[in-house]
Amino acid sequence: MRLTALDGWRGILSLIVVLAHFPGEVVLQNTSFYYSGSAIIDIFFLFSGFVIVAHYEPKLANGYGAKRFLIERLGRIYPIHFVMLMLFVLFEVVLVYFGNRAGLVEREAFSGGNTIPALFTNLLLIQSLDIHDMMTWNYPTWSLSTEWTAYILFALCMLLPGKRFLPFAIFGFIESPILLAILSEHPMRENYQYGLFRSTYGFAGGALTFYVYYWIKTKKLDERVPMVVWNLLEVIATISIFALPALLGYSKPSVIIPACYTFGLLVFALQKGAISRFMSHPALVHLGVISLSLYVIHAFVLLRLVNVAEFIQKLTHIQLIETQI
Predict the structure, then answer these.
(1) How confident is the model over 212-228, as a mean pLDDT?
(2) Which 3-state string (H, E, C) describes the chain?
(3) Pick from 56, 61, 53: which is nearest to 161 by CA?
(4) How many Cβ atoms from other residues are within 10 Å of residue 227's Cβ?
(5) Is-contact 25 321, C-beta < 8 A?
(6) Considering Cα of 132, then 129, then 136, then 30, what sign does the dihedral take?
(7) C-alpha–C-alpha distance, residues 261 and 233, integer Å
(8) What is the reported pTM?
(9) 31: CB partners within 8 A, 6+ apart
(10) What is the Cα Rg of the chain in Å?
(11) How far apart, in whole angstroms, are the C-alpha atoms of residue 73 and residue 53?
């Protein structure tokens, strides 16, 4: 099952996350665009739950093996994570350590979030399980840490009698936002502390969306809906992606955002309207295919651009960038 419209959306949204993370005045800091960049991460958790349950639930129910599943998933996310983590370490050693000695860099090497203990938790992909009190090393990979944990939880659920993820998805979809709302004043801003609840919330929501999608396709209900309705639904879904975080920001009510995003996921998974056809363009689909790499790589690239801008500022005394991360 290849849903090209979802691939296209994944590509577009990965670029938006990159722009929202850009730590400079040139990219709309403290605007609705900036808030969207954070909430959009939850769409990727939804995508993950949808695709994983669609592809692996039948396999795991028929003897595929939880170990094999976890090895496959780790093989997808870990190589790029490890390579970029080593680049961060190399930069810390070569540029920060020696630059500090030469008086060119003010920050001490292996300080802040880039400590040796944090390096080991990043290597183990447990850095965002409420171990540290800040983001560490390649900060966007907090979501890889929590998503990997969601994979493990999914595999464990599929080992239990019944071999159906549905009851666990319902529980996770209800319990996770409740915990987020109780524990955090800014539930859609959680990452290194309560990010696991965001991940399980989105993963469960994506799984439930797949079950609805499968029921609709089995009953062929989508074929009874006029094209004009599909186009309208896709416009509404597209607007909601950006309007919801813009309206709710990081407030407690923002905890409803992932639940609302399930509507858009379902609409675009059925891929009936004009926006779905646009998102299925080969260029956008390819962008979706490489979206994981874009996401994991972008922080290193952006931070190095910041370093260059800060160096120019020292020489010219002209403010080029205002760091926010």
Answers:
(1) 93
(2) CCCHHHHHHHHHHHHHHHHHHCCCCCCCCCCHHHHHHHHCHHHHHHHHHHHHHHHHHHHHHCCCCHHHHHHHHHHHHHHHHHHHHHHHHHHHHHHHHHHHHCCCCCCCCCCCCCCHHHHHHHHCCCCCCCCCCCCCCCHHHHHHHHHHHHHHHHHHHHHCCCCCCHHHHHHHHHHHHHHHHHHCCCHHHCCCCCHHHHHHHHHHHHHHHHHHHHHHHHHCHHHHCCHHHHHHHHHHHHHHHHHHHHHHCCCHHHHHHHHHHHHHHHHHHHCCCHHHHHHCCHHHHHHHHCHHHHHHHHHHHHHHHHHHHHHHHHHHCCCCCCCCC
(3) 61
(4) 10
(5) yes
(6) negative
(7) 13
(8) 0.87
(9) none
(10) 21
(11) 13
Cβ(88)–Cβ(137) below 8 Å: yes
What is the residue type of 279?
Answer: M
Surface-to-core class of residue 82, CB atoms within 10 Å of its CB (0-12 exposed, 13-18 middle, 19+ buried)? middle
**Residue 28 main-chain phi, psi, to 5 deg:** 45, 45
Q: How many other CB atoms sit within 10 Å of the CB of residue 48?
A: 21
Tell me how far apart the alpha carbons of residues 8 and 154 are, in angstroms, rounded to a whole number.
26
Tokens of 46: 């939804």
pLDDT in tens, 119-164: 999 999 999 998 998 999 998 999 999 999 999 999 999 998 888 8
> Which residue is it, tokens 């209800």?
174
**How distant, in Å, are the alpha carbons of 251, 258, 268, 304 from that of 193?**
17, 18, 31, 26
Q: Using CA atoms in the order 24, 27, 29, 34, what is the torsion angle rounded to 10 degrees?
A: -130
For 36-55, the pLDDT digits (tens) are: 557 788 999 999 999 999 99
pLDDT of residue 100: 67
Give how far Cα 44 sits from Cα of 123, 209, 291, Å: 22, 13, 10
Query: Which residue type sits at 281?
Result: H
